[in-house]
Amino acid sequence: MESRIVLDILGAASVVSVFLYTLTGLLDQVRGLLRSWHAVRRDARALRRNIPPEDRDGR
């Protein structure tokens, strides 16, 4: 009975650990996604005003 409780606790802890690891990875990507979204909005507004979009790559 005691070993079952220990195994349940370890199993729950591993599930929480994997969830937090995955959540951290997703949240790390949000910053880049928001930057890209703002760049697209800025370029779309510039195109509507007939202003050429800025070249951010330096090419």
Oligomer: single chain
What's the gyration radius in Å? Answer: 23 Å
N- to C-terminal distance: 67 Å
- SSE-based structural type: mainly alpha
Instruction: Report low-confidence residues grouped into runs of 5 or more.
Output: none
Percent in helix: over 70%
The overall pLDDT average reads 89
Number of helices: 1
Series of H and E elements: H
Q: How many strands appear in the DSSP assignment? A: 0
- Give the overall form: rod-shaped
Keywords: Membrane, Transmembrane, Transmembrane helix
Transmembrane segments: 6-27
Write up what this structure looks like.
The chain crosses the membrane at residues 6-27. Keywords: Membrane, Transmembrane, Transmembrane helix. The protein has one helix at 2-48. The radius of gyration is 23 Å and the shape is rod-shaped. The chain contains 1 helix and no strands. The longest helix is centred in the middle third of the chain and has 47 residues, at 2-48. The mean pLDDT is 89. Helices cover 80% and strands 0% of the residues. The chain is mostly helical.
Give the secondary structure arrangement, pairings included.
Layout: H1 2-48
What are its keywords?
single chain, about 60 residues, mainly alpha, rod-shaped, transmembrane, membrane, transmembrane helix
Kindly summarize this structure in a few lines.
Helices cover 80% and strands 0% of the residues.
